[in-house]
């Protein structure tokens, strides 16, 4: 089953979409983006660049993934955001690529739920089966261990 791309979505020719991927209205997928099988990209989602999203994930409306870190030491070097399988991103969630100090990597594991408004900054490692409540904000270099639950509005 080929990807289903809404006519208003913009998908960079260098992006890779797995079978059964759905890309919603006004979504933007940039260069170096890889989306796994069966993942649903909601409306107005922006996946900036150099981001891998695993299979069977759901990315809610207005999410921004793979944006530049807000770390002042970052100056455009190549870096990545790697997201595992079966994750759910709520509306307006954000996650940045990594920096040199974090090995150029921000990583979100498998089977996680990031509720509306969550932010995962540069060089964070979110392990597996975690729940981040609404508007949880992770600063750079934070690790959330497997099975953790962080309640709403925690920073």
Structure description:
- With 155 residues, this protein is mainly β.
- Helix content is 0%, strand content 34%.
- The chain has no helices and 22 strands.
- It has strands at residues 4-5, 10-11, 16-17, 22-23, 28-29, 34-35, 40-41, 46-47, 51-53, 58-59, 64-67, 80-83, 88-89, 94-96, 105-108, 113-114, 119-120, 125-126, 131-132, 137-138, 143-144, 149-150.
- The strands form three sheets. The protein has an eight-stranded parallel β-sheet with strand order 1-4-7-10-13-16-19-22, with no helix packed on it. The protein has a seven-stranded parallel β-sheet with strand order 2-5-8-11-14-17-20, with no helix packed on it. A seven-stranded parallel β-sheet has the order 3-6-9-12-15-18-21, with no helix packed on it.
- The protein is globular.
- The relative contact order is 0.13.
- The model has no long low-confidence stretch (mean pLDDT 98).
Short description:
The protein is mostly beta strands and 155 residues long. Helices cover 0% and strands 34% of the residues. It has strands at 4-5, 10-11, 16-17, 22-23, 28-29, 34-35, 40-41, 46-47, 51-53, 58-59, 64-67, 80-83, 88-89, 94-96, 105-108, 113-114, 119-120, 125-126, 131-132, 137-138, 143-144, 149-150.
Proportion of residues in extended strands: 25-35%
Shape: globular
Given as residue ranges, the uncertain stretches (5+ residues, pLDDT < 50) are none
Radius of gyration, CA atoms, in whole angstroms: 14 Å
| Mean of residue pLDDT values | 98
Q: What is the string of helix and strand elements?
A: EEEEEEEEEEEEEEEEEEEEEE
What is the terminal-to-terminal distance?
Answer: 41 Å
Structural class estimated from helices and strands: mainly beta
Find the count of extended strands (DSSP E, 2+ residues): 22
Strand order of the largest sheet: 1-4-7-10-13-16-19-22
Helix residue percentage = under 10%
The number of helical elements comes to 0
């Amino acid at each position: 089953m080929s990807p289903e791309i809404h006519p208003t979505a913009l998908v960079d020719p260098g992006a890779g979409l797995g079978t059964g991927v759905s890309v919603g209205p006004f979504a933007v997928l940039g260069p170096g983006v890889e989306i796994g099988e069966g993942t649903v990209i909601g409306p107005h989602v922006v996946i900036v660049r150099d981001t891998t999203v695993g299979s069977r994930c759901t990315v809610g409306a207005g999410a921004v993934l793979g944006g530049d870190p807000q770390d002042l030491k970052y100056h455009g070097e190549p870096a990545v955001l790697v997201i595992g399988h079966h994750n759910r991103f709520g509306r307006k969630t954000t996650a940045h690529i990594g920096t040199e100090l974090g090995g150029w990597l921000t990583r979100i594991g498998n089977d996680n739920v990031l509720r509306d408004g969550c932010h995962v900054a540069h060089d964070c490692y979110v392990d597996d089966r975690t729940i981040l409540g609404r508007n949880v904000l992770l600063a750079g270099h934070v690790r959330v261990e497997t099975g953790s639950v962080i309640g709403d509005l925690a920073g």
